[in-house]
Design brief:
single chain, about 325 residues, mainly alpha, 13 helices, about 0% strand
Length: about 325
């Protein structure tokens, strides 16, 4: 494409669009229609220039022009309660549902790995000796030891808030760092699995695995599910960098990234619930069966929420992305 000829042919249209944008709301009906047509035409021009004859100065000018035109055409919209309700009843559960092929295998493999690590530590005293001295291990695993008192070492409200903050940060890191080819997500996930495996191994070696599970399961079922969802989504985001599918890599990453940001908000709410359970239920005087039953009920409620509401929304085409009017304009692809 001869760039000089192209600019000469279309400069008048760009100048006209710029003139209409400066007039703002003082447009007649015919001028408003003209602005929309010029906006669409200029977006196509920008795409052609970017793909055929990229020129930094011209691309910058047209990019600003298209952005201003889109803002004028679509307007701005404030978030409402309707947006929050739609997010909680459709967008978030749909995003979790659609990423299930990533987070379910992540959960299964992580649980199996934690069990293997726990078995390895629990059946090999020489491995336990590399973790801590015998007296320190006894302090950890004895009745009333650190594994038990950990959940009641602080006031319930402050402990729940601290746990929620830490877990929400870990989930957000999994979601946002996935774009770095999955490597940070795998590391964060491994650290969580390793900590769980060490606890299983040490408490089982002391003959107190039932006590450990009675302390972990009430909040751990929901908490670990949220972490697995975040990790699976982060891995999916990282894979999008490698294989964007039918879309351009930029478009695919933008779509998955927006859904991941929404999931970070939704998972923060899920982890808030697990933090409340960990702060108030896990260290409570309730029987072990009652505490575990509360944890199972919370987990089943979340899975039902994802598979019923999320499945229904996903089948209607909801991807967990923001509404189309709130997305950045996607330039048409050049032929």
């Amino acid at each position: 494409m001869d760039l000089d000829v192209f600019v000469t042919a279309h400069r008048a249209e760009w100048d006209r669009l710029d003139h209409l944008l400066h007039r703002g709301r003082r447009l007649t009906g015919a001028e408003a229609d003209e602005l929309v047509a010029l906006y669409q035409r200029t977006a196509t021009h920008l795409s052609l220039i970017q793909s055929s004859a990229p020129d930094p100065m011209l691309t910058g000018r047209l990019t600003q022009l298209v952005a201003r035109a889109r803002s004028t055409v679509t307007g701005t919209r404030r978030a409402t309660w309707r947006d929050a309700v739609r997010f909680l009843t459709a967008g978030f559960p749909a995003a979790v549902y659609r990423s299930r092929h990533w987070w379910i295998p992540t959960a299964v493999l992580s649980t199996v790995l934690a069990a293997i690590i726990g078995w390895w530590i629990g059946t090999h005293p020489e491995v336990q000796a590399t973790i801590a001295a015998p007296d320190e291990l006894r302090q950890l695993t004895r009745p009333g030891g650190q594994y038990e008192t950990y959940y009641s070492s602080h006031p319930a409200a402050s402990f729940a808030a601290q746990v929620w903050t830490n877990n929400a940060q870990a989930a957000a890191m999994c979601l946002t760092l996935g774009a770095f080819l999955c490597i940070p997500v795998i590391w964060i996930l491994f650290v969580n699995v390793l900590n769980l495996g060490v606890g299983i191994g040490l408490m089982s070696s002391a003959g107190r695995l039932d006590t450990f599970l009675g302390l972990v399961l009430p909040h751990g079922l929901l908490e670990l599910t949220a972490v697995f969802v975040a990790a699976g989504t982060g891995l999916r985001l990282g894979w999008t960098v490698i294989d964007p599918g039918p879309h351009s890599r930029r478009t695919a990453l933008a779509q998955q990234g927006r859904a991941a940001i929404g999931m970070a908000i939704g998972l923060a709410l899920v982890l808030f619930v697990s933090g409340v359970i960990e702060g108030f239920v896990t260290p409570s005087g309730l029987p072990t069966w009652a505490r575990i039953a509360i944890g199972i009920a919370a987990e089943l409620a979340f899975l039902a929420y994802v598979y019923i509401l999320g499945g229904r929304a996903a089948r209607t085409g909801d991807t967990g992305d923001v509404e189309e009017a709130d997305r950045s304009a996607e330039l048409p692809a050049a032929a």
